[in-house]
Design a protein that fits this description.
206 residues, Aminopeptidase, eight-stranded mixed β-sheet, N-acetyltransferase, EC 2.-.-.-, acyltransferase, transferase activity, Acyl_CoA_acyltransferase
Length: 206
């Protein structure tokens, strides 16, 4: 299947890395999510089925790993080098999902970042890094990001990276217990400048 031979992969930009999500990340991932519960809860996907719950960590990793092997997802964690620690700590998660090959060559991207690291350029750097990989290495043509209209920090991320606004999707996803509107942003390969999305973002930061 297209692109499946390019996983697993680790991507890096300075002290930030995107590496595959693994079973052994459970303790660190659970602790990070617990610290950020209030920060993330308003934007969390939920199960619309009556009495339905979300998958456990193990179920999530199993499902995403299967999708990665099939070439339909790229499940990354975001890490940031820390000279005080041997292993770079996790500061968030980024998943490229719904990868479609054939005549579409498109995917959807979602992400979250630890509240204590927000505002430091981590999210846009991670999104730019993953987007460049999808265009340059996987050969995708379109990347899409859907964001709640109230989620100002995430809206700033796509605006900084030059994603194009495509319109409102009413009741697009079930979020925090209710069907929620989302604003859709996209970027196609033709819109990427020479040097890539990451190059443009880093240049804008001086």
């Amino acid at each position: 299947m297209g692109g499946s031979g390019l996983w697993p992969v680790t991507l890096r930009a300075g002290d930030l890395a995107l590496r595959p999500l693994r079973y052994r990340d459970r303790s660190e991932w659970m602790a990070l999510r617990a610290r950020n519960r209030d920060w993330l809860e308003p934007w969390e996907a939920s199960n619309p089925q009556p009495g339905g719950g979300l998958p456990t960590f193990g179920q999530m990793v199993r499902s995403l790993s299967h999708q990665a092997r099939e070439g339909s997802a790229l499940p990354f964690v975001i890490t940031l080098d820390d000279p005080r620690r041997r292993r770079a700590p996790m500061v968030g998660q980024l998943t490229v999902s719904s990868i479609v090959w054939g005549s579409a060559l498109m995917a959807t991207l979602g992400y979250w970042v630890d509240r204590g690291h927000a505002g430091r350029g981590i999210a846009p750097t991670a999104v730019a890094l993953a987007t460049d990989y999808c265009f340059a290495d996987l050969g995708l043509h379109r990347m899409e990001i859907n964001i709640r209209p109230e989620n100002a920090p995430s809206l700033r991320v796509v605006e900084k990276l030059g994603f194009r606004y495509e319109g409102l999707r009413p009741r697009y996803l079930h979020i925090n217990g209710a069907w929620a509107d989302h604003e859709s942003y996209a970027l196609t390969a033709e819109e990427v400048p020479e040097g890539g999305v990451l190059g443009r973002w880093l240049s804008s930061r001086g």
